[in-house]
Amino acid sequence: MSPGEDTPADRGCFVGIIFFILGLGTLLPWNFFMTASMYFNNRLNTSEWINGTVTTRKEYYFNNWMTLLSQLPLLLFTLLNSFLYQWISEKMRIAGSLVFILLLFILTAVQVKILMGEDRFFSVTMATIWFINSFGAVLQGSLFGLVGLLPQKYSAVFMSGQGLAGTFAALAMIFAIASEADSESAALGYFITPCVGTLVTLFSYMLLPKLEFARFYLDRKSVKKQKSYELETSSRLLTTDAVEDSNGSVLNGNPNKGDDIEEEGVKQAFITLPSENTASTQKSSVLQVLKKIWVMAFCVTFVFTVTLSVFPAVTVDVKTVYGGKWERYFIPVVCFLIFNVMDFIGRSVTLLFKWPSKESRLFPVLVVCRVIFIPLLMMCNVQDRNYMPVLFSNDIMFAAVMVFFSVSSGYCVCLSMTYAPQLVEPKDGEMAGALMTFFLALGLSLGAAFSFPLRFLV
Which regions span the lipid bilayer (predicted)? Predict the structure, then answer.
């Protein structure tokens, strides 16, 4: 591909649409399990029977364990993916992960029809959550590296797709409730939906290399690698020839020593050219890249730590002050749908404008200020509670807090993830994306861990 070749156009925005679908597909597993927390809690009867009477209350803390066991593998396998990419091809990591996620979703759908004890159901569900998020971590890390090869706007499109995944899951749950089918049929239909979504994601990824615009950027990566290899090889061969020539002149007592020295100088001048080109394409170390993006790494970690510490472990237990049918729709609408729609809006706003700038010290200050949402949500009408008072029992107050909580989360996350690659040279963009994915996963894991003590303090 010659340097003067014109960049092809993204006709019909097909590449953008595909990356939007891929972004949606990466977070389908987490969002569908999270939104279905009511189904899982209903199957986990918290009453323990002894001698035919209810004597104790067995609490599984499903929401907390679900959050923790979905984010820990995300952290571990995101880190592992930074080594896997050297040994396993990108196609195998992305397509293979999607296939395994599809199989695990099918298992979850089949499980709806299988009767089993509460303890066994809890164990199987937790194992499924662990494995499905492990493959999801490899998928997400690989796709972040892939989208990093394209122009910057495609990263924002990809993250907007991720933001819509939660909305997709929340709407699926609302439609399942509105169908007024029995709980078993509604749950089966609900879990079949992500199976279809994962299939669409897989087909979209397989279509990507067939588009000219995508091939231009994806093939350019391999061309750069080949050129770098050729430069290094040429440098080594030229250096070897020069050394042999020099040694030969001395050993043979060449009388034209001055001519040899002059010829050697020409060779050395020629040798330095590939070496300089090789140095210009040599990637920086992890530490060097981290020094440039550490502020954005801190921001994305802190945002997700705050968000996951209360959502959904605390927010899912908020109760409405009204009764009737609204009680069934309250959590799917106010907790999940509002959060995901506003999170999607927050991410999408970054496509129009970005404020504060990546150099501004105000941005990390605003990120830290989000910590105020933790006590605000804990003081909503969360039931059961032991220590803190209820200050915002009204549904409208809870919805208002959720709006600002979710918009700020989506906006700050997307801003952090899009700013980071801009702080390094283009050759280090992929490494910056991989590091930011790791810190994103770290924030999710820390938030999941903090959700246990915070839920207990309520």
Answer: 12-33, 65-85, 97-116, 128-150, 157-178, 190-208, 293-314, 329-350, 362-384, 396-420, 432-452
Single out the residue of 136, 134, 126 nearest to residue 65, CA to CA: 126
Question: What is the model's pLDDT at position 45?
Answer: 65
Q: Check whether residue 204 and residue 264 sit in a common domain.
A: no
Out of 20-34, 106-120, 245-259, pick the least confident: 245-259
If you write DSSP's letter for every residue of 155-224 in order, what string do you get? HHHHHHHHHHHHHHHHHHHHHHHHTT--HHHHHHHHHHHHHHHHHHHHHHHHHGGGSHHHHHHHHHHHHH
Which residues form the domain of 126?
Answer: 12-210+283-457
Q: What is the number of structural domains in the chain?
A: 2
- Say yes or no to pLDDT of 249 above 60: no
Lowest mean pLDDT among 229-238, 248-257, 304-313: 229-238
3-state SS of 78-115 is HHHHHHHHHHCCHHHHHHHHHHHHHHHHHHHHHHCCCC
Same domain, 249 and 354: no
Cis peptide before 389 (omega within 30 of 0): no
48: enclosing H helix or E strand? strand 47-50
Shared domain check, 143 and 40: yes
Q: Are 236 and 375 in the same domain?
A: no
